[in-house]
Design a protein that fits this description.
Length: about 450
RNA sequence: GGAAGCUUGGGUGAGUGGUUUAAACCAGCAGUCUUGAAAACUGCCGAGGAUGCGAGUCCUCCGUGAGUUCGAAUCUCACAGCUUCCGCCA
């Protein structure tokens, strides 16, 4: 969420910055709502002040045993007007909030201008793709050839966009995750955390997935899956009950129909980990906070029908090791470079060729101010594919979450949040299979992973 | 799933309808004293917001949301969370 003060003081400037990333801010609407808010808020507060002082007078008078009927008659006339003003204020405030919640972050000044993925800027290329003296196979053929990758069974169990790993390949997948976690905790100073995979809507709101991207998420209702029709039915029953109790004045008994609790499946560990500091004031000396978590990630892939349908590139469920830093605002860009380096280390240790790119204004995510993508070389596709995305969100998420620290003056100030994949485990597995494949269909295990594979050097049929 | 209790500024915690503005203590900050530190003493010390050039004035917040009232931390209802016990369970 953007700073509403920034919008009030420099609306045109903010609109211009948002325009660079292709977002058209409804300036007229904002101004209209702001004008309304100002009028209504001032009037509401004035009425509240009058009510408060009159009520206080009644208290004084009653204490002295004086007659209060005159003041009470006067204050009684305030009631309706005040209630109406409060309702109006509430409406305009929530309209403003709604408008604010769907405005993306402003890009950092160093973000290259551009419209799409094609305008992203390459920062560096590391490692050289190996030359193969045989026809390379993609990870699907390699995995199936080794008997360790089984999409058919996964489809039977769950459906499209799921995968099933078996034997040494399942272990290799686990080895990758373990290796990443150990590297980040032992060498990069991150604290490992284990977190909930289901979160509430407040957490999704905090990191920016809600309210705008609900269709990308999976959700569940505690107490069983509830269909849309059932939901409507429950809502009707609730309303009928409420009406009944209001009309009759009967007491509502605990255990009557109540709302179902909704959980969202995390699309990334960013959500639970970053929300650790939601509504917190972190002491200055605790900064920076650096957390690493290995979790499954669940994405509906609603907008990507037909894309990457072969293999395990784009799945409804995949594992990821996520790096999160919660830092002092002055340290966030320093932190981003550091975090990016930590993610790169994994690829270097695995000896996988990759390149780093800076996303342009048109391709950058909703909440991010600056994003680096790391793409790993996939020989079968003869191209680099995204395996990590490292972003600085500045105070955008912190403002939504009210995540703050106490500055040297002792005043609460918004933190900056950063995160990046270190790395996507499924895609790392794909990269290892394809880059380490041999002519006979076997796959050599990268040296750093062998301790996690019981010393195994190669996976063959 | 059942029962009981609880939820108040960074922490502990008083506060059962108005008489002052949420007491007190701890932590924190500043100062006095001291060669320095500690102790002691003095003062400051929740968050968000409106308005104003400013000093200031005002509003909101006692788990969340409704309600009763001229007036609610306090009364009523619902929900959430925590603690303990019972049941079930990996």
């Amino acid at each position: 969420m953007l700073d509403i003060q920034a919008l009030r003081t420099d609306l045109a400037g903010m609109a211009a910055r948002l325009a660079t990333r292709g977002f058209e801010l409804d300036v007229a609407r904002f101004q209209e709502l702001e004008a309304q808010r100002k009028t209504i808020q001032t009037r509401t507060q004035e009425l509240q002040a009058r009510r408060n002082s009159s009520s206080k007078l009644i208290g004084h008078a009653k204490a002295k045993g004086e007659d209060t009927s005159a003041i009470m008659a006067e204050v009684a006339t305030l009631g309706d007007e005040l209630k109406q003003a409060e309702v109006q204020l509430d409406e305009v405030q929530s309209a403003l909030q709604k408008l604010l919640e769907v405005i993306p972050n402003t890009p950092h000044s160093t973000v290259p201008p551009g419209k799409s993925e094609a305008d992203n800027v390459e920062v560096r290329k590391v490692g050289t793709p190996a030359k193969f003296d045989f026809a390379v196979k993609d990870h699907v053929s390699i995995g199936e050839g080794l008997g360790g990758l089984d999409f058919e069974t996964a489809t039977k169990i769950a459906g499209a966009r799921f995968s099933l790993l078996k034997g040494p390949l399942a272990r290799l997948h686990r080895a990758l995750a373990q290796f990443m976690l150990d590297t980040h905790t032992d060498q990069h100073g991150y604290t490992e955390v284990y977190v909930p995979y289901l979160v509430n809507s407040a957490s999704m709101r905090g990191t920016g997935q809600l309210p705008k991207f609900e269709e990308d998420l999976f959700s569940v209702n505690a107490g069983g899956i509830v269909t849309a029709e059932e939901k409507i039915q429950i809502e009707k029953m609730k309303q009928a009950d409420e009406k009944h109790f209001k009309e009759t004045g009967e007491k509502i008994v605990s255990g009557m129909v109540t709302g179902n609790k909704k959980f969202y499946l995390i699309p990334t560990a960013e959500v639970p980990v970053t929300n650790m500091v939601r509504d917190e004031i972190v002491p200055l000396e605790k900064l920076p906070l650096k957390f690493v978590a290995h979790t499954p990630c669940f994405r509906s892939e609603a907008g990507s029908a037909g894309r990457d349908t072969r293999g395990m590139i784009r799945q409804h469920q995949f594992d990821k090791v996520e790096l999160v830093q919660i830092v002092h605002p002055e340290k966030s860009y320093e932190g981003l470079e550091e975090l990016l380096g930590h993610a790169e280390t994994i690829l270097q240790k695995l000896n996988l060729p990759y390149r780093v790119g800076k996303l342009c204004t048109g391709d950058i995510g909703f909440s991010a101010a600056l994003t680096y993508d790391i793409e790993v070389w996939l020989p079968a596709q003869n191209t680099y594919r995204e395996i990590s995305s490292c972003s600085n969100f500045e105070s955008f998420q912190a403002r939504r979450m009210q995540a703050r620290f106490r500055n040297v003056q002792g005043k609460p100030e918004l933190l900056h949040t950063l995160n990046g994949s270190g790395l996507a485990v499924g895609r790392a597995l794909v990269a290892v299979l394809e880059n380490y494949q041999q002519a006979d269909g076997s796959v050599v295990i990268p040296e750093v992973l062998r301790p996690y594979m019981g010393g195994m050097e190669k996976i063959s049929r």
